[in-house]
Design goal:
Length: 334
């Protein structure tokens, strides 16, 4: 199949900086793709790279798009190199879109909230630091019952103090995830896991610490494997399994815990399906702060491949202004 291809870069500013162990993030940049086949079917895709997380850079993705000269074939799409995982996802998703030209306007007027199923199955992302103490109740009122809080950002003593306040404040039925983004030392990881195990053992604290996400840097896989067998609190891999190659490597090295999969940067959706069906891994699907275009494709994968009824990490709308006209503006004159 041969497609006519057009693309538009975009920028979306966060309402407030997203702070993680990787630093502060102020603007989400990406690329919207439009494929039109020989029968006028239109497919939309999105490349939303996060280079510090393991994907290509935005400039590398733009270079690839510019080289296509307005046309692309299935053969080219399914041979995009693994060094461009976000591009693999974007182009394959556009092929799978399957909408017709006369349905385009229905999509253009989308509201991203329409893509959100019952938020009870979503994990809401809390800001790092003390701001989490004020944010969780707003998300709770919106229906969220699972929250993720960033750690490894401030001094561990300060974060443990905030954590204690958060535990005292959250309702009993809450599930809480702690995401270190690889920012803890081995000693700090042990302290967090020990603290969480003590909470689990306390019958007077009925909320659940679901897991600690990526406590150590990617290169310390063996240490995380060791920690996963030393404590009751589960560990989830995130940065360590950012791409399909990393996912397969960690599985081959013995990881049977939780895998956090970010569809927007993991790579080929078809190859991801094959891997998950073959190995039935314990997954948590998570956002890369994409627009609703990539989110729709990601949610389809999550619905198909999620195991163990875990909340998926797409509760991120509150980090952006909700602009229903951004798509029309981006493609003005198209």
């Amino acid at each position: 199949m041969r497609y006519q291809f057009k693309f538009r870069p975009y920028q979306r500013r966060f309402l407030r900086s997203l702070t993680t162990n990787h630093g502060k993030w102020d603007i989400r940049e990406g690329i919207i793709l439009r494929l039109t086949d020989e029968s006028s079917k239109v497919g939309w895709g999105e490349i939303a790279p996060i280079s510090w997380f393991g994907s290509e850079t935005l400039e590398q993705a733009l270079d690839f798009c510019r080289q296509l000269s307005g046309e692309i074939t299935d053969e080219t799409i399914f041979s995009i190199p693994d060094e461009l995982p976000a591009s693999q996802f974007g182009f394959e998703s556009a092929c799978e879109w399957g909408s017709r030209e006369d349905e385009k306007n229905n999509f253009i007027t989308f509201n991203s909230s329409l893509l959100t199923p019952n938020s009870l199955f979503y994990s809401g992302l809390l800001p790092s630091g003390e701001a989490a103490l004020n944010q969780w109740e707003i998300l709770w009122q919106q229906g969220y019952r699972t929250f993720k809080w960033k750690i490894g950002v401030d001094a561990i003593a300060d974060e443990l103090e905030i954590f204690e306040s958060l535990i005292d404040t959250l309702p009993a039925s809450t599930k809480l995830r702690l995401d270190a983004n690889g920012g803890l030392s081995y000693e700090e990881a042990n302290l967090w896991l020990w603290t969480c195990d003590n909470l689990k053992a306390n019958p007077e604290i009925p909320l659940e610490i679901e897991f600690i996400e990526q406590p150590l840097p990617v290169e310390q896989f063996q240490e995380m494997l060791e920690l996963s067998t030393s404590y009751e609190t589960a560990i989830a891999l995130d940065e360590s399994v950012a791409t399909l190659g990393q996912l397969a490597a960690c599985y081959q090295q013995g990881w049977r815990g939780i895998f956090v999969i970010k569809p927007g940067i993991v790579g080929s959706p078809s190859r991801l399906r094959k891997f998950c069906h073959q190995h039935e891994i314990d997954t948590v699907f998570s956002s890369v702060f994409e627009t609703a275009i990539a989110r729709l494709a990601a949610l389809k994968l999550a619905a198909e491949l999620s195991q163990n009824n875990r909340a998926i990490g797409f509760g991120i709308d509150h980090f952006f202004e909700q602009e229903e006209t951004w798509f029309q503006t981006l493609w003005n004159g198209f």
